[in-house]
Amino acid sequence: MKKLLLVLASAWLLSGCATIVGDKTQDVSVQTWPPGVKFVVQDETGRAVAEGLTPQTVTLLKSDGTYFGKKKYLLMLEREGYVSKTIPLQEHPNLWYIFGNIPLGGVPGWLIIDPFNGGMYNIEPENVHTIMNPVGARG
Q1: I need a labelling partner for 137 at 20 to 30 A (CA). Which of 6, 10, 55, 80 fits?
Q2: How far apart are CA 16 and CA 27, in angstroms?
């Protein structure tokens, strides 16, 4: 009986719903018109974490590994003859984090497990679709 209680208590303390069903990374699709636009994704430290030409899908970390350490990204787009753009990629808590921990007792997942993992966040927009404006165009 004591072993069963120990196993149940361990499962309760070590469970975080967003950690169980979520991932530490997320794919973000970058598409532009016209295609072939150079892009760079920078994190909150200014370090380039992804770059290439559109269209492309990049995989980004959702947490820096610290307590509630969600990542922050800027997507910078440029192509000769077009106005450069910078698009912030925001992270928001997902529904698995908000509601999924309730059946498991809530507190361990909300305050202990999920805040370190990153599975509790979604990066938005997940699909970036943007039109590049030619230099000198009136809009």
Answers
A1: 55
A2: 22
Residue at 52: amino acid letter: G
**DSSP strands (E only) in the chain:** 25-33, 38-43, 48-53, 56-61, 73-78, 85-93, 121-124, 127-131
Using the predicted structure, report yes or no on whether residue 57 has a pLDDT greater than 80.
yes
Q: What's the mean pLDDT in 9-21?
A: 45
32 alpha carbon, distance to own chain's centre: 20
Instruction: Identify the CA nearest to 123 among candidates 87, 73, 81, 48.
Output: 73
CA distances for 55 relative to 36, 64, 72, 130, 132, angstroms: 7, 26, 22, 11, 13
Question: Half-sphere exposure of 134 toward its Cβ, with a 13 Å CA cutoff?
Answer: 3
User: Which two structure tokens, joined as six digits, stand for 118?
Assistant: 């990153």
* Token pair belonging to 26: 């997320």
Residues 49 and 73 sit within 8 Å (Cβ to Cβ): yes
- CATH architecture classification, 16-131: Sandwich (2.60)
In this prediction, residue 43 carries a pLDDT of: 96
